[in-house]
Design a protein that fits this description.
Number of helices: 2
Distance between the termini: 64 Å
Largest sheet: none
Structural class: mainly alpha
Shape: elongated
Strand content: under 5%
Order of helices and strands: HH
Helix content: 55-70%
Radius of gyration: 20 Å
Length: 51
């Protein structure tokens, strides 16, 4: 009984999540392009500060 009370209901579970759809342009921009752009800009910024 105590174990049932402690199970959180609002936490996302792995079986409820869909995998990344490579056919969706929106998902590719949000999850791939923007993080890559941030990483590239970071390294360019670091290189500029060093010179």
């Amino acid at each position: 009984m105590i174990m049932l009370i402690q199970i959180p209901e609002e936490v996302p579970k792995p079986h409820n999540n869909d995998p990344l759809d490579p056919g969706s342009a929106t998902e590719m921009i949000i999850y791939v392009a923007i993080p890559l752009l941030i990483i590239i800009l970071y390294f360019l910024w670091k290189r500029g500060r060093r010179n």
